[in-house]
């Protein structure tokens, strides 16, 4: 997993809690990296899971909620780092359809060792999109947060629901306008 995923997570912890919390959760986990991440490095994705579990234990906030908050925060940071991937889309649904077809394809060119999920999209109506998420990392809550973050970014209103499938998770993005 790319370092940006870790550096953004730790900066979120520092913003929402403090630097001591960052040190505490790194100390609580036996991390092969020792908790020193660079944005271009690649680290085992279990490290993020362990850090989130440690944060949950210390903060009392449940893991799924932390992963969701993190996904939402991460979208803002990705939008900041890669504005050109977003500005090409006119609407939220068009943008979401482009994650698999365009954005993650470009990400893979930039970072050939990136481990990306796969998405299968289907328009259910002009304002309704089905998006099936599949990943061996099962970061459903992060994915949900990324979708919520993009919804806010595009100033769209509506609901995001999800349903587990045998081999993934089906998300339905249903906009009200
Ligand atoms: C500007 C937009 C985006 C950029 C630049 C981007 C880039 C990335 C990068 C660099 C990673 C890390 C890969 C790794 O650690 O090896 C990643 C992972 C991920 N991305 Fe995106 N992404 C974008 C938008 C989205 C959106 C909107 C979604 C959800 C619909 C999404 C879903 C995910 C998920 C769930 C992962 C975690 C890996 C996994 O589940 O297997 N991304 N993305």
TrEMBL record:
Q: Name one GO molecular function term.
A: heme binding
User: What Gene3D superfamilies has UniProt attached to this entry?
Assistant: H-NOX domain
InterPro entries hit by this protein: H-NOX_domain_sf, Heme_NO-bd, NO_sig/Golgi_transp_ligand-bd
User: What sequence ranges are listed for the domain Heme NO-binding?
Assistant: 2-160
Name recorded for this polypeptide: Guanylate cyclase
Record organism = Roseibacillus persicicus
